[in-house]
Amino acid sequence: MNSNKIGTILRLLGIGWYVALCIGGGALGGLWLDRNLDANPIFTLVGLGLGIVIAGLGMYRMLMAVLTSKDVFINEEDLG
Amino acid sequence: MTRLLRNPKTLLFLIIALSVFLVSLGGGALGNAFNGGFLGSPIAHIQLPAESVLTDPLIGNFYLTNTMLATWLTIAILLVLSLVATRKVSIIPGRLQNLFEVLLEFFLNLMESIAGPENARKFFPLVMTIFLFILAANWVGILPGFATIGRFEPGDEVIHHAEVKAEKEHSHLNLDEVQLQVFDGNNGVAILPFGSIESVITGREFEEHGVDSDRRAGLLVPFLRSSNTDVNTTLAIAIVAMLMVHYWGLTSLGIFGHLGKFLNFKGGPIGFAVGILEAIGEVARLISFTFRLFGNIFAGEVLLAAMAFLLPLIGIIPFLGLELFVGAIQAFIFAMLTLVFASLATISHNSEEH
Fold first, then answer.
1. Residue in chain A lying closest to B292 (CA)
2. Contact A76 B119 (CB under 8 A)
3. How far is A29 from chain B (nearest CA, A)?
């Protein structure tokens, strides 16, 4: 396997975690706020929605960064 | 297929392999239902947090855990290996020196092709250290003696701990769910020998009837347990890796260049939102580092424990091979991800976009 592919694969590996953290974190944060502020289920829904939006935007950005770069060869000479 | 079977050597090999597998199957938990089980031992007690090797804390509230001992053992092995390999460095390398040279060269070449020659040499010490440590820790963790030899924890203590835990969770402890292993003899070190597969009693049986005077019921708390089955170890490596990534980002881009990726006031509201996304991404990286390694190695240990219960002694060998493979792959992924993150951190935000 050539090393450019390894770089691409490694960069794609993190996207799933990012999405999981955003959606899970948003929903759990909302749940915690609801419990403490007694506002069930407003903040859970807001947190979940916010999480999904952030996850989508972040995923789009990460994918575009991989797709638009000619290769993932992160070399000083190439960038100069 | 028929031609293969006609070859006497192949046939002999197949018959031996099949009989060995059947012996393993009959000696395990499945065979126990048909009066077999002569090789098996009770299934290992699996728990998420690392167990304390000593009954009392070392200092204050600090316990010496079995994963810490395994980590120190790994460090000692690596130290001795590297000392021996570099003691007599010569132009015509010896076997050990040759092995290390091949390994280091392979990595340096790979890193140079991913990060460029200059950066690769800067990142090399950390990336290689992470790779070697995780690889050694994972491979040391499947040696015999890990998770199988340990301290004896008496049954009353096990039940007491379960009660405290149930109280914390506001639930009632069901003594039928507490499993205890029965050991022979009265010495401090606990081992479960072959054929002890039925030496298990529940907490209720222990409370009501007890055990014979020459035996004792409790749990085996291993002296050694694979380091990466402890989330603290993997989190520590991940924190070191991410700290160094940000250090390299700061030194190559300057404070404003690097922090500007996360707190971007120049690009207007959209630029600021993008900065926040980047910051969340950093947290996600730390979490993914920690739990990818921990999850893979812990799952491997659970798989080995289950297979040692079902197919003891022989049938477990393919799974040990699988764990060797998983250990190497996880070490490689961790090291290479550190390299990729470090490379991304050292290029400025604008050049990444174009």
1. A17
2. yes
3. 14
Residue A52 within a domain:
yes
Chain B residue numbers touching A57 (CB-CB < 8 A):
273, 277
Tell whether B119 lies on the interface with A, counting CB pairs under 8 A: yes
Distance CA B295, CA B300 (A): 8
Is the separation of the CB atoms in B138 and B346 below 8 Å? no
> From the candidates A10, A11, A67, A78, which should be mutated to test the interface with B, based on the most B CB atoms within 10 A?
A10
- Please answer yes or no on whether B284 and A14 come within 8 Å at the CB atom: yes
One-letter amino acid at B139 equals W
Establish if A35 belongs to a structural domain.
yes
From the list A58, A73, A77, the residue facing B281 with the nearest CB is A58
User: What is this structure's pTM?
Assistant: 0.85
| Among B33, B15, B46, residue whose Cα is nearest residue B310 | B33
Structural domains of chain A, count:
1
Lowest-pLDDT choice from A43-47, B158-162, B165-169, B206-210: B206-210
Using CA of residue B213, residue B215, residue B217, residue B221, what is the dihedral sign? positive
The answer to whether the Cβ–Cβ distance between B283 and A54 falls below 8 Å is: no
Contacts of B168 by beta carbon, 8 Å cutoff, 6+ apart: none
Confidence of residue A72 (pLDDT cuts 50, 70, 90): very low
User: A6 lies in a domain?
Assistant: no
Please list, residue by residue across A27-48, b when 16 or more beta carbons sit within 10 angstroms of its beta carbon and e when fewer do: bebbbebbeeeeeeeebbebbb
- A71: confidence class by pLDDT, cuts 50, 70, 90: low
Q: What is the pLDDT of residues A8-42, one digit of tens each?
A: 777 788 888 889 999 999 999 999 999 998 888 88
Q: Any idea where the domains of chain B sit in the sequence?
A: 27-64+150-222, 77-87+94-144+227-353
pLDDT confidence of residue B249: 93
